[in-house]
C-alpha cells in the first residue's frame, strides 16, 4: 500500500491545502505515475464539494494530473475503480463514513488501495477513516445513523488534530482523558495521536512518521505510559498491532 495520512489540511503559513506534505505527495504520485486523481469531498459540510475539489486541484497543479470529484461521477463505484490515486478531504468524519457506506464505496476503495496499489491521501477525517473504526474522531455525530467501521488500512485507531493541552477554566475531559476512556472500554487496542502538521506514510510494508514542524506522534495503550515518537522515525511496528 501507499498511504499518506495527514492530521490536517493546513498549518500556519500554508496557502494551499496539503501544502506541508506536498513534497511527499509529489514523490508518491510521480513514482506511481498517477494521471487521474479522484477527490472524495463528502466530509465537507460548510462549503461545497466543488470548492474542495478545486482546492485539491490547485495544490496538485504542478503535476500533470486530472483531478475530479467523486460527487460528480455518474457511477461513484466505477470512479473509485478507475482512479489512479484517491485524495480524501477532511471535514465531518461521521458524514464521510456514512456516505461511503451508503454509496457502497468502502469495498471498492479498499480494493483500489490494497489490491491495485492506488495511492491514498487523506487528511483529518480522511485519515481517521483509514483506521478499523472512526470511534476516536473528534467530530460530533451530526447524522442520525452512527456507522463506525471504516476502511481499516491500518490496524490502530487514529486521533487526528491531536493536541496535548488543557484550557484554563475548562472542566470537561481533556483529549488524553477521552482517549483513556476509549482504551478502558477497548483494552486491546491502540490509539495514535497525530498532531497538526504531521502525517503517517505507508510505502509497501514500511511505515514512517513525518512532521513539518517536528511535533512527536503520541502512542496510547491502556495501562502504559504514553509513548512519544519523533518525526522521521520508522513506525512499521504499528502495522502489526491487533487494532
From TrEMBL:
Membrane-crossing segments per the record: none
Keywords assigned by UniProt, alphabetized: Dipeptidase, Hydrolase, Protease, Serine protease
Coiled coil: none
Enzyme class name: hydrolase
InterPro entries for the chain: Class_I_gatase-like, Peptidase_S51
E.C. no: 3.4.13.21
GO MF entries: dipeptidase activity
CDD domains: GAT1_Peptidase_E
Highest taxon in the source lineage: Bacteria
SUPFAM superfamilies: Class I glutamine amidotransferase-like
Family (UniProt): Belongs to the peptidase S51 family.
This protein's name: Dipeptidase PepE
Organism in which the protein naturally occurs: Photobacterium rosenbergii
Lineage: Bacteria, Pseudomonadati, Pseudomonadota, Gammaproteobacteria, Vibrionales
Gene encoding the protein: pepE
